[in-house]
Amino acid sequence: MNITKRQKDIIEIVKESQPITGEVIAKRLSLTRSALRTDFCILTGKGILKSKPKVGYVYQEIQEKKYIYEIMGPVVSVENNISVYDTILQMFAKDVGTIFIVEGENLVGIVSRKDLLKIAIGKTDITKVPINVVMTRMPNIVYCEENDDIVDAVKKIIVHQVDSLPVVRLKEDNGKNIYQLVGRFTKTNITKLFLENVVK
Fold it and tell me: Which keywords belong to this entry (predicted)?
């Protein structure tokens, strides 16, 4: 965001003495109100200052967009050829509610505790069933990309009622989409972000 030195001075004056009128700001800078008209237009247009009629100018914190790659967690995954039993062990060892299934670096499936519970309470020998038999596959996986806006990802978590989203880097191979798994975005990430903004 390009702003001039004078505009920076105006911002500092408003921060220190808000609400403050244009006339008072002009006096402090030894200028006329009309000389600052363009600066006020730019600063209010960019959302840095807010003009309140009969009150003056106030400073507004600019909420910059945040992206998934800034707060995503590490990948928690298992290979698609291991058993349901081993997947359950990994899930509890890593203390996650959802685990991603990969083939190499690429996302091929996802399983939740609920999925594993369904098969575990049956009479199936879960030490012999590969995880790829019970996993949810594409195109039924809700995911986000590392450059997605966090707000969009939060909406996906709410709408689809899931605990986490795989973060992928989309690639193409012979006309087929490849979903390289690069991280995970969870409700815990959202809570931490909320707390950081509240404590600021």
Answer: CBS domain, Repeat
